[in-house]
Amino acid sequence: MTDTATRPGTDETAVLRRTVEEQRRTIDALIVAAERRTTGEPDSSALATWQRNMTLQRRLVERTERIRNAEQLLRAVVDSIDAGLCILDGDGRIVDTNQVWGTMLNRASGDRTATSFFKLAGGATDGLGALTREAATMVRLMLDNQSSQVTAAHQVETAEGPRWWRMRADPVRGHGDAQAVLTLTDETNAVRIQEELRQATREASRLALVARHMEDGVVIADTEGRIEWVNDAFTKLSGYTRAEATGRLRADLLGTDTLPLVDLAALAVGGSMVLPEFESRTKDGRPCWMRVVLYRVTDDEGVVSLMAVERDITKRYNAEQAQQAAKNRAEALADELSVEKAVLTGVISSIPHLIYWKDAEGRYVGHNAAFLATRGLPAGSDLTGRTENEIGAADDLARLLSQLEARVLDTGEPIVDHHATVTGPDRTVRTVLMSALPQPVGDGRVGVIGIGADVTRISALERQLNQTNRLEAIGQLAAGIAHEINTPIQFISDNTRFVEQSFTQLLNAVTQVREPIVAVDPDLDLDFLVTEVPTAMTESLEGLARVAQIVRAMKDFSHPGHGRGDVDLNRAVESTSQVARNEWKYHAELTLDLGADVGLVPCYEGELKQVILNLIVNSAHAVEAAASQRGGGLGHITVRTARAPDEIRIVVADDGIGMDDATQQRIYDPFFTTKEVGKGTGQGLSMAYATIVQKHGGTIHVRSSPGAGAEFTITIPTHVPDTTPE
Questions:
Q1: pLDDT of 555-592, one tens digit each?
Q2: What does the alpha-carbon distance between residue 364 and residue 362 come to, in Å, rounded to a whole number?
Q3: Closest residue by Cα to residue 374 from 426, 447, 435
Q4: H or E element at residue 510
Q5: CA 350-353-357 angle, 5° bins
Q6: How many other CB atoms sit within 10 Å of the CB of residue 427?
Q7: Phi-psi region of 626 (alpha: psi -120 to 50; beta: other; left: phi over 0)
Q8: In the 8-state DSSP scheme, what is residue 377?
Q9: Which of 375, 402, 603, 635 is the most buried if burial means most Cβ atoms within 10 Å?
Q10: Sign of the CA dihedral 365, 370, 372, 375?
């Protein structure tokens, strides 16, 4: 306790002190009287009085010693509490304090020497000032209505750093000087009681009153754990009255068998032990969690006692459990979100379409690998936080994306499947479908999500399909025309053959009667007619046969087929070469070297004929381009077929201008052509590659050099794999 406690603790103590002084004066007077009468006869009456006074003095000393011991014990209890206590009189003057109070004031630079709490509150600053001023207001209210008051927690700067302190004011009833007790608790750290019990002071009764107002339960027991005394907080906590608890073992009142193990032998006198938190039950069976600090104390006579300070931490424990459960749920949710994010990132990265998203300022927030590849940026690049101008992509998409994003941000409406043709970083022309969608990013701002698909191949396939449909339509038309031509050609051929036969007989008869006929028409050149008419008839029949052959070839070439089936390959080559005759007959001689053992081949008839036609037409154009190199004359085109053990080989060779290595690397690219504008589309060989390699599962190779012609070799497997698309 501090030096401010200079007044008597209680009225009883003051009376006792005055009685002691009177007895001393009486005893001194008796001693003097006895000395004066030493030489004379003893006064029996005085001696008897002196003996009674000596007995009274001895009893008074014994009672004073017991009071002092009790006061020391209660003082030790109060000083062992980890909260600061301050006892005030009715005017707010500080009657007494415990050591924690002074220590806490020293840490917060408070005026420890102040004799009035109101003066202390008025002189304090910062957090301590706010706390003490609020407590001073509560003290005034409490002194008026005698009800306990608790301040809010205030942040107080101490020597160890900022701490959160709370102060409670409780009234003190039935005491002369003490009218209020202030409890200053440190809410920052868990309550730990480490103060050693000190000697009891003369104010045992007042400190016992303070102990009854503590928020923690206080239990004093003997070394066996049998309860000797409890405070009011314990009765509220456990549900047992003081009378019910006194004399019973504390363990019997906990209502549970699962108690923490305590090694009392390891607890030295004057030491303390914090027990593990455990669950107990009150008298009515209500579960509660306890935090207990155990002390071993001794008095001046060597009597050892156990003191326990108990606190109900049920609310804190439940809050911690709820917090831990929430943390576990959050961690589980975070793990799930992490897995989902990884899956989503993997899905987005594996999507072949380019995907990106930006914030309201046009800075990239995310993208996938296809976006980097399409823009010609290194794999693994991170564009986050960068604008379009800062990434330095060398393609046409930058301008297109800026236009689409500006429209979306201006109108707030999405743009879906915007068709555009752009040049990539490798200078290849690509067809893309771009979509730009508004994406709210918070605070009323809008970002953009972009999704694009490279449909170059699809566009090429669409053009091929259109071309195929057009060729199919033309083929159907040609087949119809060929069918219509075939009928009149047949009867014209029959009639011409009839005329030939009949005219031959007629000429034979006319030659027998030459002179009468010449006499009838002298200008008639009968010999010319006899010589030329049969020749004309023969040539007419040959022409009609040629027309019939062309009509049959047109019918064969225009036959679309029905999926994959066995096709007479040699006949398909013959009909295709006849259809392409108009392309090569003016520039080259075409030789068919067809293997007799080729037979039927499993293939898509219409597509294969189209491939052969494209190769023959390309060879005819190459031969035509090489006419100046040959010095005029016709070139040569050769079409060969042969059967191998597991495949059929088709070779189309010419002696045209040939190709260099760079051209050979790109001949199968869509839209690539070396022909002049209007003569080539760059689709023939790309379609041939798709038909032979992707649809038939075969191969197509070229061997060429500049000025030495070209030779295309096609192989088609004779066994259809199960994976071949139908």
A1: 555 555 556 778 888 888 888 888 777 778 888 888 88
A2: 7
A3: 426
A4: helix 456-512
A5: 95
A6: 8
A7: alpha
A8: P
A9: 603
A10: negative
